[in-house]
Amino acid sequence: DTCAGAIALSGQSGTRTDPFDGARRDVSGCEDGAGPDVFYSITVSEPSLLYVDTFGSSFDTQISIRSSCTGDPLVCEDDDCVTLQDQAVAILSSAGTYYVVVHAFGRDTRTGTIRLRWQTLPSGSGMPVRITGSMPITGMTSGSGTVSGSCGGGIAPEVLHYFTLCPGQMPTITADSCASEFDTVLYARSGDGGMELACNDDRPNPPDSPACTMGSGMGRYTSYITFTATGPGLFGIYVDGFGGESGNYTLRVSGLP
Q1: Torsion angles phi and psi, residue 40, rounded to 5
Q2: Distance between CA atoms of 36 and 32, rounded to whole angstroms?
Q3: What is the 8-class DSSP label of residue 24?
Q4: Where are the beta strands (DSSP E) in 5-157?
Q5: Following DSSP, what letter does each residue of 185-241 receive, concatenated?
Q6: Which end of the chain is more exposed for a tag (fewer CB within 10 A), N or C?
Q7: Is the pLDDT of residue 247 over 60?
Q8: Which of 188, 182, 187 is nearest to 241 (CA)?
Q9: What does pLDDT average to over the chain?
């Protein structure tokens, strides 16, 4: 239960169950909670999003994600999805090894079982953007592409937009790139193994979707996707470019709980 002896998490995603018996408190930095903790490590080969949750654990948990064994955490999370367990997402800005620490919230917790789920998604060339509602998101793609979908993208820069779901949530999500200023490609991935959920290039919106706002050069080559996401977990929608194109985009997402 020390950082030097952290349990290694292998693969893009997975779950594991570990005993909490005998753990002690070795690290601080989260505002609440004073109980013992258990360390995990994960190594990523490129800039990524890391998602972890403790749903199914047998005690009141708290999660921190750290870039080293010392110093302040990147993220600290407590009590999500109306439970005493947690889900946390951290932006890992470079390849390397990072640490996940599962804390007991209460100082008197000495026994129990941790159930840990982890998922990763490549963050691409842009800064990831969290989706929190149905408002349009505007941004700009730039740089060199590192991620692609089955229907296009790859050499063009991309921006990852992400959201998380709680256990039992299963919404149908729609997204379009209407009013963007370049030829876009949209694709969605699950953090559970990086599975592609949808990919589209140049598909017009269906008749019952919100109308595009056509401006000078806007709305050409619009992409539209729809998919069902099942929680708990991490999900990403990438705005990419066809044939190396980049520029200003507008992403509209609906269906989030």
Answers
A1: -130, 155
A2: 12
A3: B
A4: 7-9, 13-19, 37-44, 48-53, 61-66, 75-78, 87-92, 96-104, 113-122, 129-130, 137-140, 148-149, 152-153
A5: EEEEEETTTT-EEEEEESPPPPTTSPPP---TTTTTT--EEEEE--SSEEEEEEEEE
A6: C
A7: yes
A8: 182
A9: 89
166-180 residue pLDDT tens:
999 999 999 999 888
Cα separation, 68 vs 145, in Å, equals 28
Can you read off the two tokens belonging to residue 145? Answer: 């592409």
Two structure tokens written together for 3: 């950082």
242 SS3 class? helix
Residue 95, token pair as written in the block: 């390849």
Is the pTM for the entire model greater than 0.90? yes
Supply the pLDDT for residue 220: 57
Task: Residue 207: count other Cβ atoms within 10 Å of its Cβ.
Answer: 6
From CA 9, how far away is CA 138, in angstroms rounded? 35
pLDDT digits (tens, 9 = 90+) for 10-63: 999 999 999 988 777 777 767 665 688 899 999 999 999 999 999 999 999 999
